[in-house]
C-alpha cells in the first residue's frame, strides 16, 4: 500500500516508483491513495484523476493491482505490527538492495507494507532494465486522466488554438481518441469563447511560471517587496516549512544576492517577460500561463499582460460552469495545466527543477518526435546577464539571452542517475525493439 504526499506531480512520480517497488518485491499493489496536504488542500484520490481500470489492466502483465486489501488483512493494526513505513525510514533514492534487505523481510512476516508519504524513494540507477522500463510504461502509458478531465482539457486546447484548431499526434496520448475529437467540435462554444478565439493564431506558447508562494518562500530569495514580503514569507515558512524556518535561525545561509547569482532563485514574471521578448516572441503571441496563484497576484502579472495582451489562463478561457467541477481540487486543476502545457506548440519553463516542468518536458520528448520545442533557461546564465549589466543595449541583451537558451535546448540521452520522467531518451524507455 502507498499513501503519496505532495501535489499531483509528486504523486505521479510516487505512483510510478511504487509500481516498480511492488514488482521488485513480487507483491500485489493496492490502488494508491493520496495524502491530504495542508499546502495543496485537495482531497482528490487516484480515481478522481486517473482511470483506475486502465491503470490496472495496462500493468497486469507486470504486477497484480487490487482495489483494497484482502478481508483477512483489513483488521490488522499496521502501525502496531511495524508495517507502516514513513519517508524517515526509507532513504531518498534508495537502491533495490535496500528494499530486498530491509523491506522484504517485513512483507514476508506481516504480508502487508504501507508506505506513508512515499515520494522519491527509489533510485534511477542502478536499476535492472525491466524495472526501469516498467517505470516508463507506468508514467507514459498507464496513467491516463479520467474522461471528465480529458473533455475539459480538450475544450481548453481548442480555445487556445482558436480558429486554426487541429488534432496533433500528442493530443491522442493526452486526451484519448474520444476527447481529442472535441478539439475540432466548436458547437459547444459560447459566443464569448468564439469571439475570443476566432481571430487568434492556431499556435500558442505555454509558460509554466513557477512563482507560487511555496516556491518563493522555500527559495529564501528576495523579490523586492521590502519588509512586508520578508514577514509574509517568514510566516509561511514557519507554518509550512518548519524545519527550514528553524534552520534559518540556527544556521547562516547564503545571502539572497548570492543565491540569485548562483541561479537558485525562481525567475520572476518580469524576468520571464524579458527572456521571452529576447527570444523573439512578439505582442501577437498567444501565451498560456499554467497555474493561477502567482505570488504578488494581478500586480505581478501586469508586466506580462502589458507586453503580451493575448495572455490567457484556464480561468479566462473556461466558463464558470465548466470550471465548477474542479473548484477546490488543486490537483485536478493542475491536470488541466499539464495537458495544456504538453499540447502547446512551444513550452517555456522558469524553473527546470519543478516537477510539472520536468514531467511535461519529458512527455513532449517521449511523444513529440523531436518536434516539440521546450525552452529551459539556465538561471545562472540569465542572472549573470540580468544583474551584471546596469545598462545594456537591447540587441546585446537579445544576443546573450539567445545564446544562453540555445546551449540548453538540445535533447540529450538520459545521463546516469537522472530522472527517466524528464529524460526519457534511453533504451529502457524509447527503444521499441
UniProtKB/TrEMBL annotation:
Organism: Arabidopsis suecica
GO CC entries: membrane
Glycoprotein recorded as keyword: yes
Single GO molecular function: glycosyltransferase activity
One example of a Gene Ontology biological process annotation: fucose metabolic process
Main localization category: membrane
PANTHER family listed in its UniProt record: O-FUCOSYLTRANSFERASE 2, O-FUCOSYLTRANSFERASE 2-RELATED
InterPro entries: FucosylTrfase_pln (IPR024709), GDP-Fuc_O-FucTrfase (IPR019378), GT106_glycosyltransferase (IPR052272)
Domain of life: Eukaryota
Family, similarity comment: Belongs to the glycosyltransferase GT106 family.
Keyword Transmembrane helix annotated: yes
Compartments where found: Membrane
Membrane topology: Single-pass type II membrane protein
Keyword terms of this UniProt record: Carbohydrate metabolism, Fucose metabolism, Glycoprotein, Glycosyltransferase, Membrane, Signal-anchor, Transferase, Transmembrane, Transmembrane helix
Protein's pathway: Glycan metabolism
Protein name: O-fucosyltransferase family protein
Amino acid at each position: 500500500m502507498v499513501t503519496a504526499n505532495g501535489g499531483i506531480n509528486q504523486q505521479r512520480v510516487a505512483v510510478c516508483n511504487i509500481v516498480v517497488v511492488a514488482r521488485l518485491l513480487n507483491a500485489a499493489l493496492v490502488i494508491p491513495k493520496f495524502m491530504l496536504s495542508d499546502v495543496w488542500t485537495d482531497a482528490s484520490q487516484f480515481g478522481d484523476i486517473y482511470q483506475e481500470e486502465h491503470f490496472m489492466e495496462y500493468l497486469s502483465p507486470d504486477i497484480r493491482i487490487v482495489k483494497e486489501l484482502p478481508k483477512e488483512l483489513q483488521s490488522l493494526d499496521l502501525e502496531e505490527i511495524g508495517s507502516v513505513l514513513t519517508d524517515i525510514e526509507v532513504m531518498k533514492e534508495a537502491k533495490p538492495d535496500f528494499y530486498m534487505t530491509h523491506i522484504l523481510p517485513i512483507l514476508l512476516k506481516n504480508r502487508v507494507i504501507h508506505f506513508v508519504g512515499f515520494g522519491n524513494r527509489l533510485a534511477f540507477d542502478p536499476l535492472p532494465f525491466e524495472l526501469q522500463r516498467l517505470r516508463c510504461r507506468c508514467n507514459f502509458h498507464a496513467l491516463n486522466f479520467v474522461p471528465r478531465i480529458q473533455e475539459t482539457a480538450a475544450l481548453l486546447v481548442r480555445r487556445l488554438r482558436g480558429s486554426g484548431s487541429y488534432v496533433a499526434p500528442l493530443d491522442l496520448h493526452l486526451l484519448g481518441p474520444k476527447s481529442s475529437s472535441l478539439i475540432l467540435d466548436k458547437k459547444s462554444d459560447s459566443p464569448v469563447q468564439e469571439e475570443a478565439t476566432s481571430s487568434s493564431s492556431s499556435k500558442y506558447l505555454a509558460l509554466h511560471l513557477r512563482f507560487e508562494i511555496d516556491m518563493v518562500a522555500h527559495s529564501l530569495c528576495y523579490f523586492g517587496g521590502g519588509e512586508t514580503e520578508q514577514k509574509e514569507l517568514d510566516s509561511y515558512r514557519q507554518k509550512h516549512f518548519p524545519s527550514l524556518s528553524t534552520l534559518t535561525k540556527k544556521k547562516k545561509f547564503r545571502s539572497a544576492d548570492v543565491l540569485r547569482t548562483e541561479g537558485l532563485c525562481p525567475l520572476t514574471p518580469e524576468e520571464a517577460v524579458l527572456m521571452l521578448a529576447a527570444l523573439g516572441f512578439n505582442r501577437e503571441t498567444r501565451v498560456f500561463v499554467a497555474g493561477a496563484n502567482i505570488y504578488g497576484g494581478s500586480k505581478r502579472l501586469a508586466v506580462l499582460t502589458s507586453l503580451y495582451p493575448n495572455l490567457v489562463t484556464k480561468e479566462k478561457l473556461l466558463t464558470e460552469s465548466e470550471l465548477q467541477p474542479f473548484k477546490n481540487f488543486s490537483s485536478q486543476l493542475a491536470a488541466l495545466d499539464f495537458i495544456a502545457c504538453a499540447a502547446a506548440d512551444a513550452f517555456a519553463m522558469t524553473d527546470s527543477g519543478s516537477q510539472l516542468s520536468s514531467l511535461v518536458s519529458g512527455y513532449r520528448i517521449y511523444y513529440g518526435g523531436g518536434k516539440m520545442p521546450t525552452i529551459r533557461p539556465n538561471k545562472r546564465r540569465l542572472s549573470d546577464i540580468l544583474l551584471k549589466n546596469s545598462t545594456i543595449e537591447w540587441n546585446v541583451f537579445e544576443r546573450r539571452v539567445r545564446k544562453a537558451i540555445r546551449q540548453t535546448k538540445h535533447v540529450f540521452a538520459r545521463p546516469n542517475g537522472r530522472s527517466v520522467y524528464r529524460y526519457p531518451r534511453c533504451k529502457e524507455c524509447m527503444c521499441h525493439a
